[in-house]
From TrEMBL:
Protein name: ABC transporter
UniProt xrefs under InterPro entries: ABC-4/HrtB_transporter, ABC3_permease_C, DevC
Principal place of residence: membrane
ABC3 transporter permease C-terminal domain segment(s): 273-385
Bilayer topology: Multi-pass membrane protein
Keywords: Cell membrane, Membrane, Plasmid, Transmembrane, Transmembrane helix, Transport
Signal peptide: none
Localization terms from the record: Cell membrane
Amino acid sequence: MTSFPIFFFAARLAWRQLIYDKPKLIAATLGVLFASVLVFMQLGFLDSLYASAASAPIKMRADLFVLHKQTEALWRPVQFERSALMRALGHPDIRAVYPMYMLLGQFKNMDTRIQRTLMVYGYDLNSNLIDSADIRARRDDLKRQDVALFDIASRPEFGPVSEQLSEGRDVTEINGRRITIVGTFRMGTTFAADGNVVASELNFHRIFPQRSLDKIDLGFVLLSSGADVRKAQADLLALMGREMRVFNYDQLVEFEKGYWENSAPMGFIFGFGVVMGLVVGMVIVYQILFTDVSNNLSQYATLKAMGYSHFYLQLVVLSSAIYLALLGFVPGLALSLALYRLAEQEIFIPFPMPFGKVATVFAFILTMCSLAGALAIRRLKAANPADMF
C-alpha cells in the first residue's frame, strides 16, 4: 500500500470515529475554540499595546530625535536643558532643531465637567513636528492665546467634542485654565494617555505655568539635504555626552515599543497568557483523544489482528487531532474577529488581524493538537490482539 491510501484511510477512519460520538466531538471542538480565542485575544492585546505605544512617535517627523538617557518612554520623559539641543546647531549638517514639551494634564468634559487625564503636546507649530494635515490647517488659529487642538481619537469620556464644536461650544478647561478648542486632529489613545491635545509652546506654558520652557522633553533635529544620517547621529552622540540619547525615526518607534515589551509587565503578562491558553487547550484535547483511544482499544486490537500496523493506528489518532484543530480554529477565528471589533469600540485602541497573525495562531493550534495526539498515541500500546481471546 502506497503512502497516500494509508493517510487517506486513516483520516477517513478518524473522522468517522469523531462524528460517531457527537457530544464528545462538540466538547473537544469547544476546547480548541477556547484555546484559539484565548491565544488570539492575548496576541491582540499585545499588538494593540505596541500599536498604541507607537501611535505618537509614528506621527513625529524629524531626521534625529534627542532625549534624556533616563527617559523610559515618551509619556514619562526626563527633561533636559534646551541649550543642550541648541548646541547641535553648530554641526554643519544640521539645518534646524526644535524642542517639544509633553506633559499629562486634566481636561474637563464640557458636558459633565468631569476631568480626565490626557497628554498635552507643545511645540513650534511652524515646524510640523507632528505629521497631521488638520494641525497644519489650524496652524494660524493655534498661535492665538489659550487655544488648542483636540485629538478626535481620544476616549469618549472627554465628551463628543466634534459635536460640541459644531454647536459652537468650544471652551473648556485644561489644568484649570480656560482653553478654546479650535478644531480636531487624529492621533490615537495609548495605554498611558486616554487622549491628546496639541498647543503652541506659549499656550503649553500657560497651561503648565510651573514648567520652564528652558527644560524640554524631546528634541527634533532636521538635517540638511544629502547629509549622512548615521554620521550626524554619531557626531551628536559625541557632542551631547553620555546623559543623552540620539535616535533616528525607526529607533524612536522601537524604543517606545521596547518600553512596553521589556520594562512594563504587560508584555510579559500577555505573552504568558498565550502560553497558558495553549497549555489548557492541549490538556483538553489530550483528555478527549486519550479517552477516545481507551474506549476503542478493542477495535484497535481487532485492526491489529487484521494486519493493520501500529503506524496506521498512530495516523488515525493524529488525524483526529488535526481534525479537532481545524474544527476548533475556524469558529475560534470568527469569534475572535467579533471580539476584536468589540474591543476596538470599547477601548479605542486598534486590534489588527493581519494574515500573519492568523497563520501563526493556526500553527500554534495545530502544534498544540498534534502534541496532544502524540501523547495520546502512547495509549495505543495497550491495544493487544491477544486480549481479544
